Automatic annotation (TrEMBL), chain A:
It comes from freshwater metagenome. One of its GO terms (molecular function) is acetolactate synthase activity. GO terms for cellular component: cytosol. Pathway: Amino-acid biosynthesis; L-isoleucine biosynthesis; L-isoleucine from 2-oxobutanoate: step 1/4; Amino-acid biosynthesis; L-valine biosynthesis; L-valine from pyruvate: step 1/4. Keywords: Amino-acid biosynthesis, Branched-chain amino acid biosynthesis. The lineage of its organism: unclassified sequences, metagenomes, ecological metagenomes. Residues 5-82 form the ACT domain. Pfam families: ACT_AHAS_ss (PF22629), ALS_ss_C (PF10369). Belongs to the acetolactate synthase small subunit family. This is Unannotated protein.
Length: 186, 579
């Protein structure tokens, strides 16, 4: 199993999320996270999909996605070629005696305290997945009451945009990374 | 405002602009506004007896003519009855536009009377689909639907239109250009891939042209013939490609796959190069995938990039129209062959020997009953290669593929991918509408026939004189065959008693058709000729045949093509073959 991040430009039309979800479901691809939102162009939405691939090559997923009429462009976001961020809101137990320690941990990971009560603090943080994980691990000692995380979002480094590249490159993705699918009987 | 029309009028004008000459459908509440302008339209509307019949008729029409077939139904159950033919069209890449009425937009999502989310339901089985709630969007959606259905890899497109969108006023404006950012199928193959393919072919000692239904979709039979004769390689035609290459041609080894010929199956298995043209490495062709053609390199030409590498890695991928690919390949090969012409003598001596030793065949039953294979073979011989043959699904389908000799594309229709029982009668109806001057034989089973035969009423009333051969073995024959082979002859729920009930001759008569019966081998030719002579009415022939005839050869599901059996517990005599 290997993790891949795909940025997918789709037409901002009704049902497009269902089409993507339906495709992943019926072809048996596992989604780790999915983030959808508007883009600089009001007619286009951008999905960031984190996938764990097993048995199916990334190329096959991309080719199947491209068959959806509403899909305009796809690019793999590599670790070195892109900025990847997650957002986190976490509510941590924080009695008076712990408050300073919790605040120090949050600060270490560029977290911001956005809400507080007598017994808890709520921290907001954004960062690479690895930092978010580390922050959560450090907060465990105080007791995490509740948390919510966004899906990963990603943007390529440099001045080039996915929209630019989409209109100029071939939509055909073929490589030698294919692994045979399992035999089955019916 | 001369262009002010209702949404319904806009829909019908759009269909006229799209060049529709016929559509198959049934009205109902939500689609009713559309049926008013249909009443005045020059488009022929054929009122079917079940929406499934409308869908299969549209696909039958599309497969014979190469045009986009059209079916129309109301919301809810009308729309869900189209689900099977839509799925069928998706599996076999048949261009079809399905139009459905939807409850008024204000009622959508309220579980209104006859409401079904048909867009959601058909999302996985359409190439694309639409839900239209604004009458201004109707013309563009119809134009796009026809464009998407008929170009690239063909497929079904559904347009669901809310009732109020059909009733409201709009301005009719037929779009002059269609520009879909996310849809631009690549038809022109990459020239480097063509050169790579030519180089592989020139080096190959055991090449096979593995021909799929895409060759028929691309109208590329003529190009295929030139390529085959240039390479001299053996040709196999899949179930969806029967007729793409003449059965009488000396390079043809027949159909590969689960019930393919020994020569075709073995050629794929022993090949060093599969020249794959518009085929998709379906499990019914490959058998156990990990043992399929293990020593072969793969050239894969297909218009759908997602097919390449889906089941089998392609050494050379040619994405594009298969006709253009073949056309480009021919001069590239001629250049290669100037350097060195491959010698296929050894390969042909092996494959030729297999072909002559293991032709598809059958025995006449010892009990004197009629052989189903004989009936089908005689229909093919008497009706000839200019007729169109439409099969249901099961044993009769395999025999119709094996024992009718196909010489021309678009003369063999069947439900290959989905395996839809009940396909034959309505698809034959659509085929006959598309080719009214051609003899159309539905070769059907007694099980299949009882799923959709009511469309014979439609045929009788609308002067669509198809011919139906019921290969009546009073069983769900293919299932029974599997029960014989794999379930210890325990025939759980496969006996239909259809030599007793219904009386197919009376049923045919009641539906306005001529009903004929044939119980003896000696009468087979006479009855077929009798049916051939009737051209002003649909004809149904009840051929009472041997119950336990089996389809051979067979590669059991999930096993290797190497384990092909020519008869029960009988493998080919490999020892006498030098392979």
């Amino acid at each position: 199993m290997a993790t891949h991040t795909l940025s997918v430009l789709v037409e901002n039309s009704p049902g497009v999320l269902a089409r993507i979800a339906s495709l992943f479901s019926r072809r048996g691809y596992n989604i780790d996270s999915l983030a959808v939102g508007p883009t600089e162009n009001s007619e286009i939405s951008r999905m960031t999909i984190v996938l764990n691939l097993d048995g199916h090559a990334l190329d096959q997923v991309i080719a199947q996605l491209f068959k959806l009429i509403n899909v305009i462009g796809i690019s793999e976001m590599t670790d070195t070629g892109s900025i990847k961020r997650e957002a986190l809101l976490v509510k941590v137990n924080a009695q008076k005696s712990d408050r300073e320690k919790v605040a120090a941990v949050a600060q270490k990971y560029n977290g911001v305290i956005v809400d507080e009560s007598d017994v808890s603090l709520t921290i907001e943080a954004t960062g690479p997945s690895i930092d978010i994980e580390a922050l959560l691990k450090s907060l465990e000692q105080f007791g995490i009451k509740e948390l919510v995380q966004s899906g990963l979002i990603a943007l390529e480094r440099g001045s080039i945009t996915l929209a630019d590249r989409t209109l100029s490159t071939s939509r055909v993705a073929i490589s030698d990374s294919h692994s045979a699918t399992a035999d089955y009987q019916n | 405002m001369s262009n002010q029309v209702t949404g319904a009028q806009s829909l019908v004008k759009s269909l006229e602009h799209a060049g529709v000459e016929v559509m198959f459908g049934i009205p109902g509440g939500a689609i009713l506004p559309a049926y008013d302008p249909i009443y005045d339209s020059k488009i022929r509307h054929i009122l079917v007896r079940h929406e499934q019949g409308a869908g299969h008729a549209a696909t039958g029409y599309a497969q014979v003519t190469g045009r986009v077939g059209v079916c129309i139904a109301t919301s809810g159950p009308g729309a869900t009855n189209l689900v099977t033919p839509i799925g069928d069209a998706a599996m076999d890449s048949v261009p079809m536009v399905a139009i459905t009425g939807q409850v008024p937009s204000a009622a959508i999502g309220t579980d209104a009377f006859q409401e079904a989310d048909i867009r959601g339901i058909t999302m996985p089985i359409t190439k694309h689909n639409y839900l239209i709630t604004n009458p201004d969007d109707i013309a563009r959606a119809i134009a796009e639907a026809f464009h998407i259905a008929g170009t690239g890899r063909p497929g079904p497109v559904l347009v669901d239109i809310a009732k109020d969108a059909l009733q409201k006023m709009t301005e009719f404006k037929w779009p002059t250009n269609i520009n879909l950012a996310g849809y631009n199928p690549k038809t022109k193959p990459d020239s480097q891939a063509i050169r790579d393919a030519a180089a592989l072919i020139a080096k190959s000692k055991r090449p096979v042209l593995y021909v799929g239904g895409g060759v028929i979709k691309a109208n590329a039979s003529k190009q295929l013939l030139r390529l085959a004769e240039l390479t001299g390689a053996p040709v196999v035609t899949t179930l969806m490609a029967r007729g793409a290459f003449p059965d009488s041609h000396p390079l043809h080894l027949g159909m590969p796959g689960m019930h393919g010929t020994v020569a075709a199956v073995t050629a794929l298995q022993k090949s060093d190069l599969l020249i794959t043209l518009g085929a998709r490495f379906d499990d019914r062709v490959t058998g156990k995938l990990s043992t399929f053609a293990v020593n072969a390199k793969i050239i894969h030409a297909d218009i759908d990039p997602a097919e390449i590498g889906k089941n089998r890695f392609a050494d050379v991928a040619i994405v594009g129209d298969v006709g253009e690919a073949i056309t480009a390949l021919i001069p590239a090969l001629e250049t290669e062959f100037k350097k060195s012409e491959p010698d296929l003598t050894q390969w042909w001596s092996q494959m030729g020997a297999l072909r002559s030793k293991y032709p598809v065949g059958y025995d006449h039953p010892e009990d004197g009953s009629v052989s189903p294979q004989y009936v089908i073979e005689r229909i093919g011989a008497i009706a000839g290669p200019d007729s169109i043959y439409v099969a249901g699904v099961g044993q009769h389908q395999m025999w119709a593929s094996q024992f009718v000799k196909y010489e021309k594309p678009r003369t063999w229709l069947n439900s290959g991918g989905a395996g839809t029982m009940g396909y034959a009668v309505p698809a034959a109806m659509g085929a006959k509408v598309g080719a009214p001057d051609t003899t159309v034989w539905a070769i059907d089973g007694d099980g299949c026939f009882q799923m959709t035969n009511q469309e014979l009423v439609t045929c009788a009333i609308n002067n669509i004189p198809i011919k139906v051969a019921i290969i009546n073995n009073e069983s769900l024959g293919m299932v029974r065959q599997w029960q014989t082979l794999f379930y210890n002859s325990r025939y759980s729920n496969t006996s239909l008693d259809s030599k007793r009930i219904p009386d197919f001759v009376k049923l045919a008569d009641a539906m306005g058709c001529v009903g004929l019966r044939c119980d003896t081998t000696g009468d087979v030719d006479k009855v077929i000729k009798e049916a051939m002579a009737i051209n002003d009415q649909p004809v149904v022939v009840d051929f009472s045949v041997f119950r336990d005839a089996m389809v051979w050869p067979m590669v059991a599901a999930g096993t290797s093509n190497d384990d092909i059996l020519v008869a029960r517990e009988t493998a080919p005599d490999w020892d006498s073959q030098e392979l």
